[in-house]
Each structure stands twice: as C-alpha cells, then as structure tokens.
Design goal:
three-stranded mixed sheet; elongated; mainly alpha; two-stranded antiparallel sheet
C-alpha cells in the first residue's frame, strides 16, 4: 500500500501471499514495487512494516544495517543512488510488543540496575479497584489481563500512558505506600515509551509537545528526546542480558530503528 508524506490518501498497489516466503523473496518483491512506483513518478521515501523476524531479514537484504553498533536504517533507492529509503517499524505494533515483554517477563532492569516491574501496574489497578477511585487514569481490568485482547493498541497505549506514570508517582510521593517504594524506574520507563509512541505516531499539526508533528521550530524538543529514548531502550536488560540482544529484542530494535529513520527522513 502507498501513502503520501504530503497529502491524505492511500492506495493498494499489489497483493502477495507471503506466508512461508524467505527474506530474499520478500526483499525482491519490495524492490520491484519501489521500481514500478518510480516508473510512474512516485518516489518511495520509506518502507513501513511490522515486527516479524523475517522483516528484519528483508531490511538487511535491501541494504539496511540494523545492528546497534553500526546502525544505518536505510538503503539506496534502486533507481537513484542519491536517494535513501528508510525502514520504519509500525509504532503501534512495537508498543504492543513492549507491553507483552514486560507483562510476560515481569521484570526489566534499566541501565542503573533499577527494576521495572509489571506488578506495579497490577498493584495500581488493584488499589484503585479496592478504593473505588481512580487517580486520573483509565486503567481497567482488561489492561492488566490483556492477553485475550492483545491486538488492541489502545489497551497498550493506556497502560503505558502519562496518566498511569503520574498515578504511580502519586501513590509513592503523596500516599507513601510501601508497596510502591521502588516505582521510580516504572515511572521513567512509562513516560519515555509513552512520549516515544506519541512522537512516532504524530500527525496532528495543531497538537502540542510530543504529539505535535515534527517541524524545524520544535526540533529542540523532539530530537534530543529521540536520542535520549534510544539510549534508554538500549540500556534495558532482561535476566542479565541486554534486551536488544535477547529473544524479545523486536520492540527495542523496532523503536530504535524507527527513531533513527524518522530523524534521517526529516533531515533528507
């Protein structure tokens, strides 16, 4: 499907049955699509996909370098070597994968060794249910028992939201509940993931802060944050191993590749 950077429409151009196809074949199909679009005066600036491991292979076959040590999330346009085509992983899919990772593995650690715990989110839900009041957030049963509705983006977005981070900070600083004594790492994690999702999903020219579209005049806000978010995500660990090197690396690598691609696409 083709969507424009400078207008509002979308159009399907081709349909393939891809189940079981290798990364080589998929890469060739993407390359052919880019060439055919060029033939009708459409320049492809970015390729957007979700997170199956074969898609990382496709990106590599096309010429992108996705290793964190020497990352270049773009490849040369097959019809004009002066143009770059950037790889972008769907932010909504990466958000769901990040939620799944924390919920299923229970604990992540940041670069300072502090624990980010899914149990804190569950404890906040249980506290609000017991008290019959919510600390200005939308956390419900289906946000903590998400598995039967794991494809719903809004559940992940409301779980990793600014309001949930603020509620966790409130029960620590104002209510001083012992159960939440080590919640600071959760607050930092949720705020960064929430802002990163908003920024990568931004489309409203009238929105504020991280939900605003990327412009030169707000570059001093979003570019330093993207660098901060990349460093934070690459510092996450799972069971003593860097998360981006683990079996659950897709969410981190997807966000990092997309953040770098967005900056490259903006610059170009």
């Amino acid at each position: 499907m083709v969507v424009p950077l400078n207008s509002i429409w979308k159009i399907p151009i081709v349909y393939f049955l891809i189940d079981g196809l290798s990364a080589d074949v998929k890469a060739n199909l993407v390359n052919e699509a880019i060439v055919h679009l060029y033939d009708v005066n459409v320049r492809v600036a970015a390729v957007v996909c979700d997170g199956p491991s074969t898609n990382f292979g496709v990106d590599t076959k096309l010429g992108a370098i996705l290793s964190v040590e020497n990352m270049n999330p773009s490849f040369k346009h097959p019809c004009n070597a002066l143009w770059s085509v950037y790889m972008i992983f769907d932010a909504a899919h990466m958000l769901k994968l990040m939620r799944n990772t924390l919920a299923e593995k229970a604990v992540l650690t940041n670069k300072d060794g502090q624990q980010i715990r899914w149990q804190h989110i569950r404890d906040l839900y249980e506290l609000q249910s017991l008290e019959g009041l919510k600390a200005a957030n939308k956390l419900k049963w289906n946000h903590v028992e998400w598995y039967q509705q794991k494809m719903k983006v809004n559940l992940a977005a409301k779980t990793f939201s600014r309001s949930v981070a603020s509620a966790l900070q409130f029960v620590l600083q104002d209510l001083k509940l012992a159960k939440f004594s080590d919640v600071d790492a959760n607050v930092e994690f949720i705020r960064i993931v929430d802002r990163l999702f908003d920024l990568l999903n931004s489309k409203n020219p009238f929105a504020k802060e991280f939900k605003s579209v990327l412009r030169t005049r707000n570059e001093s806000l979003w570019r330093p944050f993207l660098h901060e978010a990349v460093d934070f995500l690459l510092g996450l660990n799972l069971s003593g191993q860097p998360l981006h090197q683990s079996m659950r690396k897709t969410a981190v690598l997807g966000f990092v590749v997309t953040a770098k691609s967005v900056m490259g696409l903006f610059d170009e």
